[in-house]
Amino acid sequence: MPLVIVAIGIVALLVLIMGLKLNTFISLIIVSFGVALMLGMPMGEVIDTIEAGLGGTLGHLALIFGLGAMLGKLITDSGGAQRIAMTLVNKFGEKNIQWAVVVASFIIGIALFFEVGLVLLIPIVFAMSKELKVSIL
Asked: Residue 63, CB half-sphere, CA atoms under 13 Å: how many?
C-alpha cells in the first residue's frame, strides 16, 4: 500500500507542475504533506521530517552551487570559457556545435557531480552562443 500512495504522490506532483503550472518547490511541499498524511504520519512529525529533508538537501546544494558559481565566474573572467568555446568551435565546426557541447559535458561530467558540472558548463555554453551569435537554447 505505501508504494501505491507514493505513486499517487508522483502523479499528483506531475499534475501540479505540468497541468496546473504550479511552482515546483510549492508542488513538492504540497505533495510531501499529502503523502506523509496518507501514510499515517502525525502532523508534528510531518513538518519536522519535511524540514529536516529539505534543510539537509538545500544545505548541501547551496554550498555546491555557491562554490561552483564562484569557479564558473573565475573561468569566465579569466577568459577560460571563451578559450574552451573557441577551441571546441574550431575542432567541431559551427554546424556541429551540439556535438561540441556534448563532448564538453562528457569531459567535465566524468569526475563531477551533476550540479557542479552544470555550473561549470553554463559559462562555456554562453560563450559559444555569443561567439556564434546563436540562441542559448
From this structure: 5
pLDDT (0 to 100) of residue 84: 78
Return the C-alpha cell found at 14. 506531475
CB 39 within 8 A of CB 5: yes
Give the C-alpha distances (Å, rounded to integers) separating 107 from 31, 50, 101, 118: 37, 36, 10, 12
What whole-number distance in Å separates Cα of residue 32 and Cα of residue 6?
Answer: 10
- Per DSSP, the three-state class of 115 is helix
Q: What is the pLDDT of residues 66-113, one digit of tens each?
A: 777 787 778 778 887 778 778 888 888 888 888 888 887 777 766 667
The CA–CA distances, whole Å, from 110 to 21, 38, 106, 124, 128 equal 34, 40, 6, 17, 21
**Cβ contact 15:34 at 8 Å:** no
Cell of 50: 519535511
Contacts of 74 (CB under 8 A, 6+ apart): 80
CA distance 115 to 18: 23
Here the contacts of 99-105 (C-beta below 8 Å, separation 24 or greater) are 100/128, 101/125, 101/128
Q: Phi/psi at 111 (nearest 5 deg)?
A: -105, 5
